[in-house]
Amino acid sequence: MKKRLLKIAITTALAVTFAAPAFAANVNPFTDVPAKHWAYDAVNKLVQAGIVDGYADKTFKGDKTVTRYEMAQIVAKAMGKSTNPEQKAMVDKLAAEFSNELNTLGVKVDGMQNQINNMVKISGDARVRYENTKDDKEGTDFRARITFDGKISDNIKFNARLTSGNIGYNQSNAVTAQVDTANVTFNALGLTNTIGRQDIKLGSGFMMDTQFDGIKTTLGGLKLYAGNTKGYTIPAATLAEKVYAGEFSTNLLGAQITADYLDNKGSNNKFYGVNAGFGLFDGVAGNVEYVKNDTTGEAAKAYGVKFTKLGLSATYRDVQGSAYTPYSTMASDLNAIDGGTSFKGMEYQYDKALDKNTALNVKYQDFKGMSARTAATVNVKF
Q1: Is the bond preceding 29 in cis, omega lying within 30 degrees of 0?
Q2: Buried b vs exposed e over 320-331: b needs ≥16 C-beta within 10 Å?
Q3: Cβ distance 134 to 372 under 8 Å?
Q4: What is the pLDDT of residues 180-206, one digit of tens each?
Q5: Distances from the Cα of 366 to the Cα of 3, 314, 362, 374, angstroms
């Protein structure tokens, strides 16, 4: 069953992931650019992405090699286009190389860079998931998100994210679209403030990992949150409730430590937790986490180890019912564990980069009193 699960999940995910890139021909349209020039590959990638183009006859108009001024003209075109982070890095490298020629042509690199920075940045990600439990219950879902980031002024930035997909374990769920985030960020009195619908993740996400409508204030390693959960987290029946939260992160003796506090006004439960990640030796890292519901006294503990070079990790979880909330990262798994459920046992995970910006995640959970489950997920960023 597990072999069939992985075969179906990976085949489906890879078909979706690589359908579009398969049509991109790896052909440089410029016939007279020396293949050994360091900029050849960068220009080729920008051409394929539609960021730059050549002259009508598909050349740089050089005798046998492109001149620096002709290259500068190509770079100037690219500097005026909207780019993703990877493309921007390429353009920045080319602009630095040909800065003298660009200035001679009247293109001020610094000014052009400011113009590029002021453009709206568009990015996104897509996900395909498949899960099967030991009792042969199975499900598939997919999700696609597009994110918009930009500047309103020198001190005000905006963010919005649109999410669409068949999100949930029930395969009959209709495809939906929703605004996951819509907020503005500004600095005031030395604080960085974000107001509107935004992500909230405390620690590893076990305590809370969702979106909420409210305000986040950041000062160094301290974050403070106040607002209402959006009300359509998984499970869908979860109602919006007022929450107050705080998080402090610091590096202590080589360990990354995060302390969190959460006050769920709707359920009248208060939580606190601490998470620590640290290196054990080369290629091996450890993680411990403790969360307690201060209202009921019940707690959740986790101990894990990760072989970073292999992408393998193993975590032991011991969770008492009221220490597990419907806003947990685990509550948004394909076959989610209901909030308020007690469980303990092992969780194994394998992470593998399939290609640039494409990753595979395979997870196996074997918790006492529950059917063991295996899930395969492919994530693509663009």
Answers
A1: no
A2: bebbbbbbbbbb
A3: yes
A4: 899 999 999 889 999 999 999 998 999
A5: 17, 11, 14, 9
